[in-house]
Description:
The chain is α+β, with helices and mostly antiparallel strands. Helix content is 24%, strand content 17%. The chain has helices at 7-13, 17-23, 104-111, 191-208, 241-246, 253-272, 332-348, 367-370, 378-383; strands spanning 40-42, 72-74, 134-135, 138-146, 150-157, 162-169, 175-177, 183-185, 219-225, 228-234, 238-240, 275-276, 285-288, 293-295, 302-303. A hairpin with a 4-residue loop joins strand 5 (150-157) and strand 6 (162-169). The strands form five sheets. It has a six-stranded antiparallel beta sheet, covered by helices on one side. A three-stranded antiparallel beta sheet has the order 11-13-14. The chain has nine helices and 15 strands. It starts with 6 loop residues before the first helix and ends with a helix.
Amino acid sequence: MKEKGNPGAAAAQDVTAQDARDMDKTVFDPGFAGRDRESETLDLSKTPEGRDREAQTLDLGKSAPPADADTYAVEPTVLDLGSWAPASDSEPGLSRDGTRAPSRAQIEAAANEPHRAIKAKPAAVHTALPIGFRLFEYRIDGVLGQGGFGIAYAATDVNLNAKVVIKEYLPEDFAYRTTDDSVCARNDEDQDFYQTGLDSFLVEARTLATFRHPNIVRVARFFEANRTAYMVLEYERGQSLKAWRKKHENVPESELVSLLAPLFNGLAVVHKAGYLHRDIKPDNIYVRADGSPVLLDFGSARRVQTNRELTNIVSPGFAPFEQYHSQGKQGPWTDIYSMGAVLYWMVTGKKPVEAASRVKTDTLLPATSLADVGYYGQALLGAI
């Protein structure tokens, strides 16, 4: 479980999830403490008191030898406390079936390692964590949203008495919540996919945490628990663009441009670091109380890599055609299409036609024919 402009992003990209885990591992060898003083064997057979008794072994790593000891044989003793099992009919240090018991470090490592052959657990009735559940200093207050790759919770930092948003990695098609509140892959075939996604979630959270832009939600922390991972984001007070527009149906062009232009600047920072948002829509844009916008929900963000399949993330009307299949060529243009769709919706009040249905015959009416030209100029509508 770990804590966490952009000069740090390049370094963070080179850090793998396993590297992050290994940084926190400290191995203690109980036998090492006694190696500064040699464990030695005392031959008492030469002493008058010891002739009638068989030779005994004295561990000098714990006590000093008698002053009249004559012979010492160097034989270091290493005690592995992690592999010890309670006394039984089997050999000490072995389990009842004769196999060596796993060390505590091995047990703890297995708890967050889906690659391990861990027996499936019963599924919980509800997928989301219950209200009042504690994740370290955070208390779950409710569910904000639930998607294909995870759940967003409203939460409270009980130490600071501050509201936060927590994203949990839980791809429902490949994993489920168990009765002990942990997350488990649905079957053996899903283990690799689940682990790959978990590793990506951790590495990408580290990189997203390096972004510092006033119009991009800030990742404050990320950590592992319950055999999955969590991302803690700053809580933004305001309302979604979808709710905001209901009160501002006819927004003048100058106000519209002032509202959304900062988001393009924020996206430029994300794209320059090699990432895509991939889920831009009115629900994921917040308007703060001061009127400034902020781009939320980077749970679907992915690093741009060639020759790599990307999982389908589709918000009908706002997602471009390349997001409808895993091998679609995605890039900065993917997010630009979504921003254009948001602008179309803002000026026309209508959600764009789904991209997949526009391939053979484009039935989307242009913004120039639907928007009120009294509010918006031809240059803006043409660009949309």
